[in-house]
Every structure is written in structure tokens, then in C-alpha cells.
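Continuing the series of single-chain predictions for the mutant panel. This is the parent chain; the variants come on the following pages.
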Amino acid sequence: MRNLAPGTLVVSCQAGPENPIHGPAAMALMAQAAEAGGAGAIRANGPADIAAIRAVTDLPIIGLHKLGDPAGVFITPTYEAAAGVVAAGADLVALDATLRPRPDGQRVAQQIARIHHDLGVPVLADVDSLDAGLAAREAGADLVATTLSGYTNGHPPTGPDVELVRQLAAKLDCPIVAEGRIRTPEDVRTVCDAGAYAVVVGHAITNPMDITARLVGAIPAA
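Parent structure:
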């Protein structure tokens, strides 16, 4: 089992269907480029992308599967989704561990326990608040990430949630992974100083469409 080491930069290689680089082949290339740049792990969505990435790298893969309504619990919402990403080659399973109801009616603790028992892999809990992080750890999560901070209330802030990283690191006895709107080396240093065990960066590295749009938006109107 490949483990997530402390001080790891995790590169999230994901692209939606609206993006020209959507698809397993492009995500595998992104993962190779990330590894060449020094990334210590990859975060990827869906069995197809995960299998393609596993074929080209031995880095640890944090696997998830986005299913259902994005307004609700849709990051690996069921055990079956978790089993699919592990079968494709994921070493850890990321799942939504917010306090919202799950689509299958189960508690997150039930899903985590079954993943541990049947699949034998660690679980990374994506949370949006300190309360959710505390509950996720109590439910058996091995790592807790700030992935969903700002996204469950419809008003995401513009930068990383450094305060949530700090609160989780102070309260929990497990690794805290900083994720969400981390775009610069300064952001990385700030969340590490706040107690992050590892840092996930996505759009700022692997979404040239988004990067281009932000830069274009900074050009003054003629």
C-alpha cells in the first residue's frame, strides 16, 4: 500500500466534460507532468481516469468518484463508488464527510467502516467545517481534508481556509490535508505553517482553461 507521506504536494488531476482536456488520456499526461515536477501523490476522479493514471505512475493515488447532484453529497457518496476507485488502482479513498444526508441513507461511519473492512484502504474525509472534521474522525476517517470548505453554503472564499486548517490540526489526532483555492507558493507555505500534513493543489496546476481565463480577466479593457 502506497502511503501519503508528510510534506507531500498532492496534485489534483481532474477536468470536467466542459474542459477540452477532459478524459483519461489527458489526465494521465497531467499526472506524469506533476510527478516530473516533484508531486508526491495524485488526486483523481472516477475509475477510468484513475486506471489511466495508475498505468503511468507509482505515486499514491487519492481516488474519488463524483456521482449524483453536485449540490449534495456527490464525492464518493456510496460504498460501491469507493470500491470502484480502489479496483481501478486508488490507494486511498476520498469521500464527502460533511454533515449533510447521504443519498443511500447510510451514516458516513458505516461507509468508512466497510471501506476499511472490505477494501483495506485509508479514508480521506473531505469536510467543510470543524464540526464535520471532528465527526469524521470520530467516524473512523484516517485523514481529514478541508476540500469542501466554502462550497456547501454557496459562498466559497477567494483563498484557502487557513483558519479551518489550523482548527483541525489543533483538535484532531490525524493528518490534516489542506485543499481548496490554493494557488501560490505563499498559499502552500501558509497552510503548512497552520498545521497541514499535506497540500492538494488542482486548478492552479492542472486547469489551463481556468488559468487562462483568470489571466485574461486581468487585462485592462481597451
